[in-house]
Amino acid sequence: MPRLHYGNTTLAGLPEIQHRRLQSVLSAAARLICRKRRCKHVTPLLRELHWLRSRERVVDFKLAVLILRCLHRLAPRYLADDIRRVADTNRRRLRLSSSALTDCEINATGDHIGDRAFSFAGSLLWNTLPLDVTFAPIMPVFCNGLKSHLLKFSFPLS
Hints:
The chain is mostly helical. It is built from nine helices and two strands, in the order αααααβαβααα. It has helices at 2-5, 16-34, 43-49, 54-71, 77-80, 100-103, 118-126, 131-134, 139-154, and strands spanning 83-85, 106-108. It has a two-stranded antiparallel sheet. The protein is globular, with a radius of gyration of 17 Å.
């Protein structure tokens, strides 16, 4: 598992075929831990273990935590300088800019090559998170809310 998580924020924007490979590793680990055969469907096992799917676990969760660290200036400067809240920039304020709805949005200010760049992928992810997650007062509350949100997204109730 540590090898799966090493450098995982660089996996943002990875093609779906690569996520399927990562998911097969997670599925094998879940089957091993729960001592289930390969023919056993893995979704109930992942729910039981409270594990996120590969895209949410390896990319989205870690990327959102890194963005939060950037916003609070706890990340390395070369990353934090590329991330700003929209309300903190010197742009002309729109009518809604003082509302809580736009204060939580962040904008990528650095140069980026494409949609896999940290600043672009991170701001895109952050702007899709619910307000109760983005306005969490401390890191453990943020992580719990983020994981709950991503679990609902990974395993929607049918």
